Amino acid sequence: MKAIVCDQLIDGTGGEPVRDAVIVLDDGVISAVGPRATVPVPRDAELLDWSGSTALPGLIDCHEHLGIDLGDEEGQLEQPLEYAVARCVRTARLIVSSGITTIRDCGERGTLGMAIRDAIADGVVPGPRVLAAGRNICRTGGHGWKMGREADGADGLRAAVRANCREGADFIKIMASGGISTAGSTVMAPEFTDAEFEAVVDEAHRRGRRVAAHGHGGPGVASAVRAGVDSIEHGLFLTADDVALMVEHGTYLVVTAGSFYVIKASPHVPQFQKDKVGNAIEGHRAMLAGTVGSGLKVVVGTDENHGNLWFEMQLLREVGYEPLDIISAATGRGAQLLGNAERVGTLEVGKAADVIEVPSDPLDDLLALKSVASVLKGGVAQPHDEFPTSGRTP
């Protein structure tokens, strides 16, 4: 049994912070939480003194790729699979060190995503909890085809969903629009027909899998939303009409803006990717500002900007979102999208003891989340050391 005492607790539900708080952890689960005046520290508990610090739920990154770094992605896919495994191990440790205790891995080669998920769960390597998509589902020759499962037609797409489920995918990832990282892909072009999107969503939902749709904009995004996908990933060129449709259908937006900034600034990224992003970043910021108060369900992901979830959160602050809502986007609301809110995302009794310590107050400055002091996953201290990100931080 462990007990954390802290100056401030933010529980991830969106509620007001609790001052002078205690969190009791028993066998990897939160057994008591609240003000010290009402939650005593058990005599036999190991005391974790986080005086002067804020305790928060472990952060949730709703869009990652453990086996890929920003840069020449297609070139990386030509490296041996063993090299990609080593990259996954490095990245998983970096991520959990940054305070992110749960991720959605939105696509890897073959069954790599499920393999690293299971290796982390079995304690073979350190890392966050992983929900894995397995192979991205894409049209023949479409965005991400070198890493994905190519399929065409409603029947072909149903078969692709079934094959991913057979391989152990936790959710399904499809391509709604073209993408930035695939040479020759047109970013705004729809990748599938209405009937094809409908087949994917129907097949996935009947098998208890949620559907994440890569989408920057254009008619493919609207088609995917109308078909019932659970989230749109990225949204670089979303319009006000797209946002209104997503609000109407309850579709989440996974904001991954940091990757756009890195693409524009990094010498490691091919020029064709920079050309596709173009001057869209300011328009993307304006779009996000327009979603404040709209009812859009916003969550955050790093894509391949590994560990830098703080950047996505800070961007939301800059466009007008309030700190408590942003923290919820990176904790409780993220867990709702992932479908595991009964287990993670908030500091409540019965939830997994995923808790992080931040030495200063993130409500005053969200950049405090760049300096996480302690990370517990299931009540167990995680590696907390500095790992390089190859200079690709925005």
Structural summary, described in words:
The radius of gyration is 20 Å and the shape is globular. The protein has a seven-stranded mixed β-sheet, with no helix packed on it. It folds into two domains: 93 residues, Urease, subunit C, domain 1, CATH 2.30.40.10; 280 residues, Metal-dependent hydrolases (TIM Barrel). The longest helix is centred in the first third of the chain and has 17 residues. Helix 6 runs parallel beside helix 7. By secondary structure, the protein is α/β, with parallel strands linked by helices. The C terminus is likely disordered. The two termini are 40 Å apart. It has 13 helices and 17 strands.
Key traits:
five-stranded parallel β-sheet; TIM Barrel; 2 domains; 394 residues; single chain; alpha/beta
